[in-house]
Automatic annotation (TrEMBL):
Gene Ontology terms: biological process: methylation
SUPFAM superfamilies: S-adenosyl-L-methionine-dependent methyltransferases
Keyword entries, A-Z: Methyltransferase, Transferase
InterPro entries recorded: 23S_rRNA_MeTrnsfrase_RlmA, Methyltransf_11, SAM-dependent_MTases_sf
Coiled coil ranges: none
Sample GO molecular function, one term: methyltransferase activity
Protein name per its UniProtKB record: Class I SAM-dependent methyltransferase
UniProt cross-references to Gene3D superfamilies, sorted A to Z: Vaccinia Virus protein VP39 (3.40.50.150)
Length: 253
């Protein structure tokens, strides 16, 4: 993006669509290391062995659509209306059903309806509801956002922040056990993220809304201009995402 002003880059990113949960717009403008466990591969293996599966917070269905061998019954939930339409188109070839849900309500499915539940980067993990809709012997697989993810970027916009109070792995393990699930795997990773222009920062903040919850281009324009100058000087802005993988079983008894 050599030669383009911060204002031009910001305006371009502010006008770009952010529907769905794909990140193709950032190609060539930002990079992120991938977790070592390979969530897509793990999900595909679990789906191939399942008879019925539920994917929670599917976004635009992009990750679920990578499954090469879906189960006979495949259902996904999504709360954000623009994503629901995208997910229905994306998952049509898998015969997957997408259900729009209220994020503050329970899962609209009967007890013991699924032998597999998955979720990649859920906004909130409804542990009790997951345990309820899993069949005895069923399995939950999830890649989640860890505490303090992208903190460097949040603080570049908001200033110094207190230590994160949520999304700690110990909290997830305790909640899973409280719901009656047995945690069988827990892995953690800290991953390098590079932004190569301020437009990539703006688009990311519009897409991943919890990084700066009240993000607005005009409200934070001075901070964005400072980030533009910093990237021009250093060549890149570096932050770190934090992820953890958790797998849990519902006791067969």
């Amino acid at each position: 993006m050599v030669g383009r002003s911060g204002a031009e880059l910001i305006a371009e990113a502010a006008a770009a669509p952010v529907d769905g949960w794909g990140f193709d717009w950032l190609d060539g403008r930002a990079t992120e290391e991938r977790p070592p466990w390979g969530y897509a591969r793990l999900s595909a293996a679990r789906m191939a062995a399942a008879r019925s599966a539920l994917d929670i917070d599917t976004g635009g269905g992009e990750v679920l659509a990578e499954v090469p061998q879906p189960p006979p019954l495949l259902v996904a939930t999504e709360a954000w209306p623009p994503n629901v339409a995208v997910a229905r188109r994306t998952l049509e070839r898998l015969d997957g059903r997408v259900v729009q849900v209220d994020p503050d309500a329970g899962l609209p499915f009967r007890d013991a309806a699924f032998d597999l539940v998955t979720s990649r980067h859920p906004v909130h993990t409804p542990w009790a509801e997951i345990a309820r809709v899993l069949r005895p012997g069923g399995h939950y697989l999830s890649q989640q956002i860890g505490a303090g993810t992208m903190r460097e970027l949040s603080e570049a916009v908001l200033g110094p922040l207190p230590p994160p109070a949520t999304r700690h792995t110990a909290q997830a393990v305790a909640a899973a056990r409280a719901a009656g699930l047995d945690v069988v795997r827990l892995d953690r990773a800290v991953l390098r993220v590079e932004f190569h222009d301020v437009g990539a920062v703006v688009w990311f903040l519009r897409k991943v809304v919890w990084t700066v919850p009240d993000f607005d281009v005009e409200r934070y324009r001075p901070q964005l201009e400072r980030l533009h100058a910093r990237i021009r000087a250093d060549g890149v802005f570096v932050a770190h995402s934090r992820r953890f993988l958790i797998e849990a079983d519902k006791p067969a008894g």
